[in-house]
Amino acid sequence: MKAALTSMTLALGGRVTNVAQMFGGAWLLFMEVLRDVWKKPTYPRLVIEQIYQIGVRSTGLVLITAAFTGMVMALQFGLGLEKFGGKLYVPKIVSLSIVREIAPVFCSLMLAARVGAGIASEIASMVVTQQIDAIRVLGTSPIKRIVIPRMLGCLIALPLLCFLGNIVGIGGALLVGVTELGLDAGFFYNKVITTITLLDLLTGVGKTVFFAFSISITACYFGLNVKGGTQGVGLTTTKAVVVSSMSILISDFFLTKLFFVLFEKA
Fold first, then answer.
1. Nearest of 66, 121, 104, 75 to residue 241 by alpha carbon
2. pLDDT tens digits, residue range 90-123?
3. CB 79 within 8 A of CB 182
4. Which site among 30, 83, 158, 174 is 20 to 30 Å from 90 CA-CA?
5. Cis before 149? omega within 30
6. Would you give the DSSP letter of residue 58?
7. Nearest-angstrom CA–CA distance, 54 and 86
């Protein structure tokens, strides 16, 4: 019994240590990025390439997710509220939910799955094949050539994708509202316009800035710290996706609370 308790305590302590080491390492990487991002030389071509890889190539995935999420939400709320005569409130509820929560979180989760996995596996492969060491030997910082372009690309692309997701998600809800719920298109549109404010848009898009840092820094950290050779690349990719997805969901709660305190009570 004592031996089992000791073993469990050591295992728990090891996990806590690993988590603390991970957060500490990611924070140190973030501080190093902030220190080097202002220094020359800069690589705008690499940033543009990452905007294409992260943003343009993820557009289809994000828009399909946003469209069908909006359609499902409109259908669920419409059928549920119809029993209580509240079907007319569907445009307000769905549009606010999409703009404030659904579009930012779902777009970020899609990018964490696609882009986070890609960044982590790419960098991990470069570490395993000693390409990162070669970059250092040539006198170039891997942070500036590898990490910063991916962070800036994610930081630029994710808010834009979220904005597009808002439009497509509300469009999907409008389609279902007209075809399935029998709502007038003009009524739906007017309710959306009068309900959503600039603050709602900024709150939702503002969250994606924090989510972009979470996705890019987490993926780069796990990629740079891959262990176990080529076999560790797959494990590193899995860790990057899981941790970045969890950080998005956890930080969403605190960001929602923060924005409420800052803006709603002001």
1. 121
2. 889 899 999 998 899 999 999 988 888 888 888 8
3. no
4. 158
5. no
6. G
7. 40
